[in-house]
Amino acid sequence: MATVSLVDITDFRERVILSQNLNSDRIKIASNLVQEKQLQRILCTQLYDEILSEYPDNLSPANEALMPFIKDFLVFRSYYEYVATGNIQSTPAGFRIANPTDSVAASSEDLQSLGGKALSDANYYQDQLINFLVKNEDNYPLWKNSSCNCPADLRPYLRNKFSGIGSPFGYTPIQDT
């Protein structure tokens, strides 16, 4: 699990609509998993490790410029993960739907719609992050020259687009950031 969290609950409250009574531990678990599993893959291990070692007080100017893109991606992707399981509780008797007496649980159709929007937002910010890295790759040699499991070899073929935003049938080019 990520030992340095690059986002906190304040970052979420600035970007997505969340209840004030939210169990922030669940959001933190989701964001740490996204950070470790997905952000590390996008940034490649060397750049990811460099940012973790510098955060929050010693970020290089290049990494400081990258942080808004990282935070947007982490918040929206973590929010998508949270939407999928937000009202499900693990209990000794198994998994249960949390349903306070003064509310009604969202239907599966409502959750699917909300999840679809959350995923679309997450994909948008993922593309913005990758686009920023591509356009500024000379400032990120650890990323540019990485031999990790990044989609670097696919960048020219997919026009720096990985999420398929804009069309369920194919990729559309991303706009300048």
Throw out a few tags for this protein.
mainly alpha; 7 helices; disordered C terminus
Question: How would you portray this structure in words?
Answer:
The protein is mainly α. It contains 7 helices and 2 strands. The protein has helices spanning 9-15, 24-43, 45-54, 61-85, 108-135, 141-144, 155-158, and strands at residues 88-91, 94-97. A two-stranded antiparallel ribbon has the order 1-2. The longest helix has 28 residues, at 108-135. The chain is elongated. The model is unreliable at 152-157 and 164-177 (pLDDT under 50).
Order of helices and strands: HHHHEEHHH
Count, helices: 7
Distance between the termini: 31 Å
Helix content: 55-70%
Large-scale geometry: elongated
Largest sheet: 2 strands, antiparallel
**SSE class:** mainly alpha
Q: Which consecutive residue ranges, at least 5 long each, have pLDDT under 50?
A: 152-157, 164-177
Work out the number of β strands.
2
Summarize the structure.
The chain has 177 residues and is mainly alpha-helical. It has helices at 9-15, 24-43, 45-54, 61-85, 108-135, 141-144, 155-158, and strands at residues 88-91, 94-97. Mean pLDDT is 76; it is low at 152-157 and 164-177.
